[in-house]
Design goal:
Helix content is about 50%, strand content about 10%. It is an alpha/beta fold. The strands form 5 sheets. The protein has an 8-stranded mixed beta sheet with strand order 15-14-13-16-17-18-19-20, sandwiched between helices. Helix 13 (about 335-345) links the parallel strand 13 and strand 14 (about 350-355). Helix 1 runs parallel beside helix 3 and helix 2 (about 70-75) crosses helix 3 (about 80-100). The longest helix has 21 residues, at about 80-100.
Length: about 725
């Protein structure tokens, strides 16, 4: 069986159909490139063929990207020289696409056959780079389709000609959102931007493409014409010079210099813009090889593509439990969290009963969905009909009897053991015996909350992150008695609402908060030590954290920090470390609760826009004359999180190493360039990590003492993804 087939009609138009075997969407593999190459050769050599259409055998899509095994095989092909293997393999692929682009023309641009691409819908990565090499791109008018080059989002850049062709087609400035931000567009927006040539009705797609192929069109690409000038100017042109200066500043401003792919992409564009096309392709391949050999990019691909996809497809789901898809969910509490859960559930087609003590509060919770859909309509992402469908699925009420028939309950009431216990008992008395009860909590132990349940094996924690509709991660927590069906139910629900799940065992703060709270506390602790607050915040950003610890407190609110501190102290007693309590309690007393009060570690203007760090902080905690090195501040902030991740793995809170890295990046934004805390340790090496933490512990205290697991691995020179390699699916 082959992924590519070709047929030629009576008019002399050869149609190459891409239909990846056993896949719902086309994915390019090693054999696929060979097959496509052979068919292009055959079509170009056949005098009966006047032109070619490349299309898809999948309804609604063209292609989803590259099978990453292609990259792995390239690396392996040259034995001890993986970089040479990559470079050779990439140039071979470029040869296929360049052959399509030239269409059999000679050196004087004479002869040749037109090759059109007819895209049924979505084309991503190589699924758009192939069309870019064709002479004209036709796309079906499918509003759900997404077209673009999202590679930068997983730590690489478009390396199969997409970077070079798009810049030559549009100019560096116009191409930058699609290359540097991975922006995706629906067909009509793609046409407006100049990404594709024609958008046509789906049932006319092949006919329109054929009509063009037979029209004897000019097929020479602009960059192959004599005298070609790049839109917007090349780097040595005054306008182009300003573009590249600005692009360099923008990339470094957004990435803080820690994402190798963005810098490599810009280098490929800059250097490639000053040479002929075929040389530019070699430059692109060289920089792409550089990125693929960088451990940062390898880690990002593994965590944000391979591992994330595996978790979403049920890598940790109990295998012997039948489908547990949710039909009707009851959401207890219509506050911000409950309203968000109701929204994503209704969008997924699930019937929702949204409960609150007051009808006004329940209605307000449902209104959150109304506002969300109205925004979608304003942006032409939704319709009035869609809005009515989604809203019709939500019943906002105070009547607990409305929960009858629910197969899942998600409790999102106030973070109080007593209140949650009361709701658990009331609701379990109403719902059926098969109903799974989930509590949405960020700090309260699930095993303790399950004591209020008469069916502890059907009681589970589902920790959503706020805002629910935007945050990608959902943390599922198993209590001591939680059974497999409850785990399967939670995982199937998360799949339905299109989130990424991790499953962890019950322990105070679970996984995400266990790691992020020490990061926040370390930043606050440094303030009390006299470290310049700006140094703390900028050190965090320079290691790739999206927010510095002080800004993060402002965003989540100071009074929440006080509440967590009090609850933790009550639970831990003498083991509790109160080093940051004084500053938090003082700020709460001053009414500086963070962004919501327009006053916190930062100052805010009247509209609530964040300004500079609050000067009053220095008056209360004077800045010391001698400041620590940047590296020391960064190591304190990193290891505050990383050591907790290792501890969670050591103690069995984390059951799968993939969840540790994916959860860290999606849950609290841990330095995505690193691939996650455990990938980062593999990158820097466990011996260096232990040496560094020992030095931090000697200077700053036992909280930096390396867990025994890390010490043992360092002594053996082990890495995490070797020792804890996930089992391969059968």
């Amino acid at each position: 069986m082959t992924d590519f087939t070709m047929s030629t009609d009576a008019d002399g138009v050869a149609t190459i159909v891409w239909d990846t075997v056993n896949k719902s969407m086309n994915v390019m593999n090693e054999q696929g490139f060979r097959d496509l190459d052979a068919l292009i050769d055959q079509a170009l050599a056949d005098d009966a063929v006047k032109g070619v259409i490349i299309t898809s055998g999948k309804e609604g899509s063209f292609a989803g990207g590259m099978d990453l095994n292609v990259i792995a095989k390239m690396k392996e092909s040259a034995g001890d020289n993986p970089a040479q293997g990559l470079m050779d393999g990439l140039m071979e692929c470029h040869g296929v696409l360049r052959k399509i682009e030239r269409g059999g023309m000679d050196d004087k641009n004479k002869g040749g056959k037109p090759i059109a691409c007819a895209m049924q819908g979505t084309g991503l990565g190589i699924g758009f780079e192939i069309p870019l090499s064709c002479h004209r791109i036709f796309v079906a008018d499918n509003p759900k389709a997404k077209i673009g080059l999202p590679e930068i989002m997983v730590g690489i850049f478009p390396g199969m000609g997409g970077t070079t062709r798009l810049v030559r087609k549009m100019g560096a400035m116009a191409a930058s959102p699609f290359l540097l931000e991975g922006k995706l567009s629906d067909p009509n927006k793609a046409k407006m931007a100049g990404l594709v040539d024609e958008v046509v009705p789906a049932d006319e797609l092949l006919a329109k493409a054929k009509e063009w192929v037979l029209s004897e069109p000019s097929i020479v690409k602009p960059w192959d014409e004599k005298g070609y000038k790049m839109p917007g100017g090349a780097p040595y042109h005054p306008a182009g010079f300003m573009t590249f200066v600005g692009a360099s500043a923008m990339v470094n401003g957004k990435t803080q210099g820690v994402y190798p792919a963005a810098k490599a992409l810009l280098s490929a564009v800059y250097e490639g813009a000053m040479v002929p096309f075929d040389t530019a392709i070699k430059i692109e391949a060289r920089w792409f090889t550089n990125v693929l050999m960088n451990p940062s990019s390898s880690n990002m691909i593994r965590s944000l593509f391979i591992n994330k996809e595996a978790l979403e497809k049920g890598a940790v789901r109990p295998a012997d439990v039948p489908d547990q898809s949710v039909k009707k969910v009851g959401v207890l509490g219509a506050g911000m969290m409950g309203a968000g859960i109701a929204l994503v559930s209704a969008l997924a087609g699930i019937e929702v009963v949204l409960i609150d003590r007051e009808q006004e509060a329940a209605d307000k919770g449902k209104a959150y969905t109304t506002a969300h859909m109205d925004k979608g309509i304003a942006r032409k992402k939704a319709t009035e009909e869609k809005k009515e469908q989604v809203l019709s699925r939500i019943t906002a009420t105070t009547d607990l009897d409305a929960l009858k028939g629910c197969d899942l309950i998600v409790e999102a009431v106030f973070e109080d053991v007593g209140i949650k216990a009361d709701m658990t008992k009331k609701v379990e008395a109403i719902v059926g015996e098969e109903c799974i009860f989930a509590t949405n909590t960020s700090t309260l132990p699930i095993t303790e909350l399950a004591k209020a349940s008469v069916r502890a094996e059907q009681f589970i924690g589902i920790h959503f992150f706020s805002p629910v509709d935007k945050m990608l991660l959902v943390e599922i927590i198993k209590g001591a008695e939680t059974g497999d069906r409850a785990v399967a139910k939670a995982l199937d629900f998360v799949r339905q609402i299109k989130k990424t799940p991790i499953v962890v065992n019950d322990e105070r703060f679970f996984y995400a908060n266990r790691c992020i709270i020490p990061y926040i506390n370390e930043g606050i602790r440094m303030v009390t030590e006299g470290v310049e607050p700006a140094l703390i915040e900028n050190a965090a950003k320079l290691i790739g954290m999206p927010l510095g610890p002080l800004q993060l407190v402002d965003e989540t609110s100071v009074d929440l920090g006080v509440k967590i501190a009090k609850a933790t102290k009550a639970a831990l007693g003498d083991e509790y470390d109160d080093a940051v309590d004084e500053i938090l309690f003082w700020m709460e007393g001053e009414g500086r609760l963070g962004r919501k009060s327009k006053a916190g570690f930062y100052s805010y203007d009247e509209k609530g826009k964040r300004q500079l760090l609050w000067e009053g902080l220095g008056e209360k905690y004077p800045v010391a004359e001698d400041q620590p090195d940047l590296a020391e501040v960064q190591n304190r902030l990193l290891f505050a999180q990383v050591l907790e991740a290792v501890g969670a793995l050591e103690e069995g809170v984390l059951m799968d190493i993939r969840e540790g890295d994916v959860g860290a990046i999606l849950g609290w934004g841990f330095a995505p360039w690193s691939g996650g805390p455990l990938s980062w340790l593999d990158m820097v090496g466990t011996p260096w990590a232990v040496e560094t933490t020992n030095a931090l512990a000697a200077k700053h205290g036992p909280r930096f003492q390396a867990p025994k697991l890390l010490e043992d691995m360092a002594s053996e020179g082990e890495d995490f993804y070797t020792r804890f390699a996930p089992a391969k699916a059968a």
